[in-house]
Design brief:
binds adenosine-5'-triphosphate; about 40% helix; five-stranded mixed β-sheet; alpha+beta; binds magnesium ion; eight-stranded mixed β-sheet
């Protein structure tokens, strides 16, 4: 037998059993962001490696160690995108989208060669938003409110919001000196990475996951003490907006985020339920990035959420996975008539999920398959139904007798029946997409 190949470590197949949970999350996310007027943008998975070096920063885990970068056959230096923001900014500049404010969202796979573990994969998925051209705390509030709405839609509790302000470039420069002084005083206790970052990017030391550094980091000066008046006002207005919206948060003056391009507002949504991989959504303002990538000076704010980590938190028992109905046909005449009847049903009930039995077999074996499909209803077409112009309709879950229904009655049942009716309002957004 030929040797069997396997998926790459840290990259996973989503099998049909689990796909409904992904769709559930994606449908809700799409409904929420489009409910705020965000429009989707799709960009290539491959970009020039230079794009990520210039945006994420040379001295970051992503660019130094995690990126899948390679030379293609023509000698171009390419990288599989490790995140979505850089691509969005590149595309927005390239297509001249930035002469007016833009609210954009995206979704899709990202690639980072990290050590695979729960909540950390080499191909993972993000859903994110980017807003261009708006500078005030009102839009920061909007993107955070949007995430809160999504958690509510997904029935997620136990996520907490952490918030900080990184100030503007000159404020950060002053803070940087104070931080370096503090870290130099403890240089002997720093790990190799942090010592190196002392010179290149000392703020990133605050983002270290090394528990041995926790004490030094906790004792570091607070960024918030270095904010100028405008940055402070921005932060305070955002906090007031969150209070007014009833969105709880805690200020974490050590929150700096892993990427270089942030300024002013940064935030993370964190859970304690996933161990070390507790950040499910992260974002903030990055007013300098567009200019840094060659566009005109344009303020920007956004976030990205980790789909796999969120899926780990969602109660999937409430997500419908089976079809609405499974049509069985008994006898040659019924089997011959079934496909056309199924098509008429699909015409009459938009969005209906109807499996038609294929491959014949006894009543018993067909019914077994209907059961196994997870359908809520079995629809039965036999000689008797064919002659009478009806279909048998039997609930496959819970109690319920088989009833003979005319085509029109069946359509009404499928449209408004208790199970399907509930499902339809629950997942209306999913049905249309
Ligand atoms: P972490 O600190 O966990 O490494 P990060 O700061 O590198 O996260 P971002 O680049 O801000 O993460 O990405 C936003 C979100 O994407 C994260 O909060 C997380 O939910 C998710 N994410 C990031 N890297 C991975 C990964 N390797 N596997 C799964 N999800 C990830
Ligand atoms: Mg990371």
């Amino acid at each position: 037998m030929a040797e069997r190949l396997q998926a790459i470590r840290g990259m996973h197949d989503v099998l049909p059993e689990r796909a409904p949970f992904w769709q559930h999350l994606e449908d809700h996310a799409r409904a929420v962001v489009e409910g705020y007027g965000y429009r989707e943008m799709r960009t290539p998975l491959l970009e020039p490696v230079e794009l990520f070096k210039r945006s994420i920063g040379e001295v970051t885990d992503i660019v130094e160690k995690e990126m899948y970068a390679f030379e293609d056959r023509g000698g171009d230096r390419l990288a599989l995108r490790p995140e979505g923001t850089a691509s969005c900014v590149r595309a927005a500049i390239e297509h001249g989208l930035l002469d007016q404010p833009q609210r954009i969202w995206y979704r899709g796979p990202m690639f980072r060669r990290e050590r695979p573990q729960r909540g950390r994969y080499r191909q993972f998925h993000q859903i994110g938003v980017e807003v261009f051209g708006l500078t005030g705390p009102d839009i920061d509030l909007e993107v955070i409110a949007m995430t809160r709405r999504l958690w509510q839609a997904l029935g997620l509790t136990g996520l907490r919001l952490e918030l900080n302000s990184l100030g503007d470039a000159d404020e950060r420069a002053r803070y940087r000196s104070a931080l370096v002084a503090h870290l130099r005083a403890h240089e002997a206790q720093l790990d190799a990475d942090s010592r190196r970052r002392l010179d290149t990017n000392p703020l990133r030391v605050l983002d270290s996951k090394n528990p041995d550094l926790a004490e030094i980091i906790a004792a570091a000066p607070s960024l918030l003490d270095y904010l100028g008046e405008a940055s402070r006002a921005h932060f305070e207005q955002l906090c007031a907006g969150l209070d007014a919206a009833g969105i709880g948060y805690s200020v974490n003056p050590r929150l700096v985020r892993g990427l270089d391009y942030y300024n002013r507002t940064v935030f993370e949504w964190i859970t304690d339920a996933l161990g070390a991989q507790g950040t499910v959504c992260a974002g903030g303002r990055y007013d300098g990035l567009v200019a840094q990538l060659g566009g005109r000076d344009t303020p920007a704010v956004g976030f990205a959420l980790g789909v796999e980590r969120l899926l780990d938190l969602i109660d999937t028992s409430t997500v419908e996975t089976g079809p609405d109905a499974y049509l069985v046909a008994l006898g040659d005449a019924a089997a011959a008539a079934a496909p056309a009847i199924a098509e008429r049903l699909r015409d009459a009930v938009p969005g209906l999920k109807l499996v038609t039995h294929c491959g014949g077999g006894s009543f018993k074996s067909q019914f077994k398959k209907a059961d196994k499909s997870g359908a809520r209803l079995a629809l039965i077409l036999g000689d008797e139904e064919l002659a009478g112009g009806t279909l048998g309709c039997k609930p496959l879950r819970g109690q319920g007798e088989q009833r003979a229904l005319s085509f029109d009655e069946l359509v009404t049942t499928l449209r408004d029946g208790p199970n399907i009716g509930v499902l339809r309002t629950d997942t209306a957004s999913g049905r249309s997409g």
